[in-house]
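Provenance and format

Records in this collection were gathered into a single text stream. Each protein contributes a sequence line and a token line. The two records reproduced below are adjacent in the stream.
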Amino acid sequence: MNALLVDDSRLARTELRHLLRAFPEVQIVGEARHAGEARALLLQTQPDLLFLDIHMPGETGFELLASLEKAPHVVFTTAYDEYALRAFEVNALDYLLKPIQENRLAAALAKAQAKVAGAATAARGAASAPEEPALPPLTEQDQVFVKDGEQCWFVRLADIRLFEINGSYTQVYFDQHRPLIPRTLQHLEQRLDPRVFFRANRQQIINLKWVERIEPWFSNSLKIHLRGGPAVEVSRQQSVRFREMLSL
């Protein structure tokens, strides 16, 4: 299992590297002091696991994750405990408080190994399974059935302004409703009309026809305000694609 360490403190990186020596199944493929270095190393090394500090010069760990189209499994390492809830909202595997305890590190690595092994098994199964016919794309005028618990809706796609990851489900925004559906954004992206629905970041797909206003955001990215809310931060890479797609 390959791991990348991202922390602006050299001492913290050294301590973590020392702790990881007790786990021979983990190979450290690089270290980064800030988000810019981390972004380059992520592309270069393609690690399975990212040990990520939150407070760093320039971008925070959360901002780095929001800018990535694809991220490895993440374990946050920080001296602050107030960001734990937000960490799990972005699907982090674990949240380790400094100074890191070896038993907590072992638990985090066990979670990571289970995820990596599961992904490898799924990939082998997908390679050997016969291909299923692709479902036809949906237009904005199509109506879709949405069920959340005992409640059901039959809603036009044109009336849905946002799809957003919420844990292992996707939350659907239309009218005043916020039902959860057992679908991934990857599945939805394959079915939706790309001229209408835009993948803003790893966690959100927006309906372009619900855009109310756009403002420049950090690191040359964009922030899009939807009618009826909420505001959505577009990743740096997708901000470039958004400008190219909608410019004359």
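Adjacent record:
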Amino acid sequence: MEQSSSYNKETIQHQFDRKCKLALQGEKIDYERHLSYRQKHEILFCELSKTEFWKLSTVDEYTAESYFLADEQFDVKIKNELLAKAIETLTERKKEVIFLSYFQGMSDAAIARKLNLVRSTVCEHRTRSLELLKNTMEEYGYENYR
């Protein structure tokens, strides 16, 4: 009798071991299937191109970091403090030409028609304004880095 009870225990243990091994094999197959799916459908951030990466990202913009220049015609948001200060130093006519040219994207001819000026005058205003902006920004920049 003792032999059969020992035989039954051994048989039950073998059956249990077999079931455990089958369960682990099934888990292994499921895990490998999951890894294969992830490999086909997921991409690491380091493998993305810069354009793809920037499509997925966002940049917070805070109004405290922006400067608003406004008058009767324009309401412009400028992110660079140095540029905003430099634009403030321009005369109204020069500001108008810069705003129309760079913020509205108008050509010199279109600006001339709008402001009743000669196109060469608009070009001259724009050129001198850019020179003034450059000089002013260099001065402000130099003062800020002392």
